[in-house]
Design brief:
With about 120 residues, the chain is mainly alpha-helical. It has 4 helices and 2 strands; from the N terminus they run H-H-H-E-E-H. The model has no long low-confidence stretch (mean pLDDT about 85).
């Protein structure tokens, strides 16, 4: 499922899960599949899946319950932490977008360099 687009795999997975949450196929209160199942589904490592779920936690879309799993948060329920947490989420989203751009530029420049002949 993860494609070689220049966007980090964890962001691709987070985007897909976010779309499922917003589209209703993952309804509020629904548990996310286990990390192992998500890793298998997306053909990604456990650490990449954990990063993706971390992004969704930061955005307030999912909430972890110790020993039970990670669940889709009810959109009507205000996220814990109030304004300070919302500001942190916005900062993380901005940094994630900026990092994706840098990684894309790096991938592009690496591709260009490898296309040149060496002397």
């Amino acid at each position: 499922m993860v494609r070689h687009t220049g966007q980090p795999a964890y962001l691709q997975i987070a985007d897909d899960l976010r779309a499922q949450i917003r589209g209703g196929s993952l309804a509020p209160g629904t548990p996310l599949p286990s990390t192992a199942k998500l890793a298998e589904q997306y053909d990604a490592s456990l650490s990449v899946v954990k990063l993706a779920v971390g992004v969704l936690r930061t955005e307030g879309l999912v909430i972890g319950q110790q020993g039970k799993g990670v669940f889709v948060r009810d959109a009507e329920e205000p996220p814990a932490g109030g304004d300070e947490l919302a500001e942190l989420r916005a900062t993380v989203e901005d940094l994630s977008r900026r990092l994706a751009k840098v990684e894309e530029q790096l991938a592009t420049s690496t591709t260009r360099r490898s296309g040149r002949s060496s002397r």
